[in-house]
User: Fold this.
Amino acid sequence: MPPVLELRNITKRFPGVLANDRINLTLNQGEIHALLGENGAGKTTLMNILYGLYQPDEGEIFINGQQVQVHSPTDAINAGVGMVHQHFMLIPVFTVTENVMLGDESVKVAGVLDRQAAAERIREISSAYGLAVNPDDYVRDLPVGGQQRVEIIKLLYREADILILDEPTAVLTPQEADDLFKIMHSLTERGKSIIFITHKLREVLDIADRITVIRRGKMVGSTTPKQANQSKLAAMMVGREVDLSVHKKAAKPGEAVLAVQNLQVADDRGQVAVDGVSFTVQAGEVLGVAGVQGNGQTELVESITGLRPAQGGSVRLLGEEITHADPRRITELGSAHIPEDRQRDGLVLNFPVADNLVLNTYYQEPFSKGAVLQQEAILETARQRVTNFDIRTPSAETRAGSLSGGNQQKVIVARELSRPVKLVVASQPTRGLDVGSIEYIHGRLIESRDQGVAVLLVSSELDEIMQLSDRIAVMYRGKIVDVLPAKGASKEKIGLLMAGVLDKAKGGKTRKDA
Amino acid sequence: MAKKETKTKAPADKKKNAFGIFLEELTRGSLLIPVLAIVSGLLLGGLIVAVTTESVYTAWSRSPLEAIGTGIDAALRSYRALFNGSIGNPERIVDALASGEAAAIRRAFNPFLESLTKSVPYIFAGLAVALGFRAGLFNIGAEGQLFIGAITSVYVGFAFTGLPAIIHVPLALGAGALGGALWGFIPGLLKAKTGGHEVINTIMMNYIAFRLSEYLLRGPLQRPDTTNPISPFIEASAQLPRFFDSPIRFHLGFFIALAAAYGVYWLLFKTRLGFELRTVGANPNAARYAGMNIVLVTVLAMSLSGALAGLAGANEVLGVNYTLAPAFSSGYGFDSIALALIGKSHPVGVVLAALLFGTLRNGALQMQIAANVPVDIISVMQALILAFIAAPAIIRTIYRLRTPEHQDDELHVRGWGG
Assistant:
């Protein structure tokens, strides 16, 4: 039997870039084939070619042994290829049924939508693959994982046999990711074939049947989870040996830099998101806040950094009351903030890298004198920081939006850590980044810690928390359920705390932290 | 792909001037669109001239070929008239230069100078809208701000007597700016404090301004000796100086407008406030993160935008009309929205687009007289140009241009949710 999908010698050039260079890929029926590579390696380009969004300059596509021309997503869907994009293509105010029907509406007489029939099919599909999706739910009410399952249903509804999942776990909590993996297995058991695009090594080893690694548009090689391990894959991806473990000296905690007392914060809808949280972060230590996303971490960080008003309690930075201070004052007191959503809060994508590097210090000497910006000084500083922080950009005047995610994050890290800071609040600092950038940013955070900076790290990546933290606070439903030393803490225990089990502080009381 | 060339940097690009930045923005693929839009607008305008010319239809009854010839002839005739009316009749210019007579030369160049004069309110109002765009604000209220600016400046112009021009002119201009600023400040404050959308509020402020000016011109500000809604003439000391004898109206306002364009450029790209303004416009979340005062920036941006629009009104009153009548603005404030879009919200682009609009408006009159083509054809042409710029996909399709990678910087305005 021929493979369900075969890509032969796919080449795609963009002005100045060879995005795909003679890439070959085969996908057998019932297989999960992981496409692994750093950001910008050409994975998404390759899949966009398969999905008809780009035309290849050279190369052929075979589906079930037949050569096909894919000129548009419609061609791809007709050929049985479906794609779940990293950013979902759903309409929040529509129901699941309406979203699934979009573009493939089944109608009764006179163009009336046949919602019943569609909902019925969605139910069938959902139960057949264990997707647990209710067709009558509104998409806006679904968690991210649920929305992703709606995207998968959309493909199955259109009878796709080859599913492309583009970085599906980037937006998911660890639990949701595990659910997704179960679904992926149930899909392949029923004869579907999956291409799984990712740069997360552990996931690949857990779930893939075969692994193809791409680096700089070229195929580096193919392997299987049995033959590979994390460091081998990382080396293939990056092209050099990568040190995945974080080396750090024992912490030398000093005075309390950040002291949070009984803090209460509401979310956008006015619901309690942070419910009486207390903790301290000391100079020279990393306090990691673990937790499944959506348990109040975002609101906690926003409140500490002055972006969200506190409803009660207090926040002190080096003894200064900052509970109701504005972001500028908090910044000036020596707090650095690496925000959770770098493109939303951390950068102005349309501005050059240089301007982004002074986004919160532009008004100070030497970047401004009086009311006038000192462009020379801004550019000069930017060039230094681009070098010092290894930001890969054509120049300091390049638009920040045209950099890769990892380099965008380095711009933020460079801006925040170049100031003399006492506290670093890093929220999801490596989300969606490639291995090389993660390694780099972890190193910088530990370096800050060793220089006596207090680091508050919030991450939904448990591995990251375990590697970097000296102490780990676990957040669940707006409360800190426990704070434990990282040394000796087991992943299982923290995982259970994150899930709300083993709640030591019974009755919901917050454990006081020394 | 990420390339590593961080250390070496040519010193040539160290300092960029206004024009350099503008050129750079334009060559990123966006220059082509406005230029092609203008060309297409002119071509289509010619077609409309042809199909609205009666002789074309009489020719059609004889032969289609003749009709096409007549149509092309009609279009060419009107464009020749447009050119003569807005730039000058080349033959007359040559003759005048040959005669060496100063008055004749001035008269020959008058159409060109009049075009510059006509572009002055467009420059000011276009800058007003462009400044708003940069701060993420859609100032539809330039027309109303322009009316208020005209009212306050005309009042200072006629009510204050005995002042020397060196004081009276700046005072009257300042009053115009202040009036416009107030009219921008109110919707700015509403936006910043209550989230009331500036599009709605500036439109409402327009109505208030129009009705207010009608009331004032029939009441407190009416010229004593007439029943027409018209203000008294301003004092000679408040008039913006003209450079040539009548009928050439070219006045100092043109150079003030150019200075204002430079001022806006300087403010936007060289100052702290400009940086804040552009940041708030490009990404308000990041502005908040960076500790900028969004309320203050929004209010300031709307006030400055209003002040510029007010200056547009003041210049018409102090430089051209010397009095205020309800019909003194031919929709400068509304045209300026189009203008700011054509000029990509950049001061240099705005000046160029304003010169184009002023030239078209001025030539339209001559076109009507010489070629019997209605002035309104120019409005249609402007509308076409704007439509092409607002929907660049049309231009890209017609001229088979590639879609640019980054389209997000084509318009600096946030949607209703912002």
Summary: Residues 106 and 248 of chain B are 8 Å apart (CA to CA). Residues 1-15, 405-418 of chain B have pLDDT under 50 and may be disordered.
